[in-house]
Design a protein that fits this description.
174 residues; alpha+beta; four-stranded antiparallel β-sheet; 9 helices; 23% strand; globular
Length: 174
Amino acid sequence: GCEIRNIPCRYRARARLFGNILWLIFGGLFLATRKSTTGRPCQVNKAANTSVSLSYAQLKTIWENDKASWKNTLSLQQGVYVITNTDNGKLYVGSATGRNGIYQRWQDYIRDGHGNDTGLIAIVKQHGLEYVQTHFRYTLLEHYDFTVPKDVVLARESYWKEALDTRKHGYNGN
């Protein structure tokens, strides 16, 4: 399995409800995460890990057609995500820790294609918004409710940037 280091399982326990809500909304796209009350770091079962990976078009369609259910669910979650450019394989790792969490962050990407991220702004300027709409995919790597300290989420973002080498081979500049 894949070990998530330094993240107490008590933070993962709250994700179970979130995963179940998403599963109900999207008929099986999402699976609940492992529940633990030990407070110790835990192994995450890949088969039970909450997952979401959507193209720009899928994300935009969900926002337009089912905005209320997404807002209610994702605005209560902060997390780490990766944006994949399916044209060239480059990645951008980001985090959502603001007031409306993942919902607000992904809404920013739907609005302008870059969410004010320097590396992504350059792509939109060079290729246009239509390029992003055709080639970008949004994947949630980890999510937490707002009882988890922001520093934990930011540390996990840094971990994923390093693990996926997005500073050297992707769009992350920091």
